[in-house]
Amino acid sequence: MLDALYNLSNKKTNLISRKYQIESSFTIIKGAGKTGKTSIIKQYLCVLPSSSYLYIDLNDLRIDKEVVKQELQEFCITNKIHTLVIEAYDESVKLPNVSSVILSTEQDLQIDGFERLNVYNLDFEEFLAFDSRYDSLDSAFTHFLQTSSYPELYFTHQQERQKLLQNTLRLTLNPLELQIMISSAKLLGQKVSAFQMFERLKAQQKLSKDMFYKTFYGLIEKGYLYWV
Predict the structure, then answer these.
(1) What is the per-residue DSSP string for 81-123?
(2) What is the average pLDDT score of the chain?
(3) In this predicted structure, what is the pLDDT of residue 145?
(4) I want to staple 102 with a disulfide (CB 3.0 to 4.6 A). Which of 85, 196, 204, 218 is the partner?
(5) Per-residue DSSP letter, 174
(6) Are 126 and 38 in contact (CB under 8 A)?
């Protein structure tokens, strides 16, 4: 399995530069799902010799995590891996002794010796780089506010973007996380507390306070929700 991953090409294909760059040999890239972590990593890898790195995405259902745990160290030594990339990193995977390690995660991961790169959705300047067909900044900004700032949406036809966004949220969030996101979206611009949101959801479904607060603050930690 690791041989197959090692032989895959990660050449740069249709990637638009972001404001984020990997500058440290040991970096943790943190961000919510679909914010562009993978594209940033692939831009970093595309200037490296293909034989020098190993790219692993633990969210890939074809990958057996137990095999990775057992064979990663020996594989990196045998193939003289210089740079190891693990997406959706799980702390149960022991990191081998290589010259560079890049990890991506939604969790608040802290490892000694690693720098942290926090990645967010597109800001307005990045949005213009992805979608530059507007006659004026006013119309561009209006469209920016009306649509999501997930990078991959701008490679999708405009009529399909809302469907793609909703499917993305269904795939990346569990049912309670999704309900909290929907409830939060309806309260944008209003002064509201976490307890008030709990009371709203509790009136709609059976829900414990502990589970709500754990899930709610988990969404903030992952970067899906923000307090203003």
Answers:
(1) -SEEEEET--TTSPPP--SEEEEEESS----TT-EEEE--S--
(2) 90
(3) 81
(4) 85
(5) -
(6) no
Provide the pLDDT for residue 14: 64
Please, what sign has the CA dihedral across residues 124, 128, 129, 130? Answer: positive
Average pLDDT over residues 28-46: 92
Give the pLDDT confidence of 137-158 residue by residue, as tens digits.
999 898 888 776 788 777 777 7
Tokens 């959705």: give the residue. Answer: 121
* Residue matched to tokens 């213009």: 128
* CATH annotation of 2-118: 3.40.50
Q: Which residues of 185-217 are buried (b: 16+ CB within 10 A; e: fewer)?
A: eeeeeeeeeeeebbeebeeeeebeeeebeebbe
> Which of these, 157, 168, 141, 154, lies nearest to 15 by C-alpha position?
154
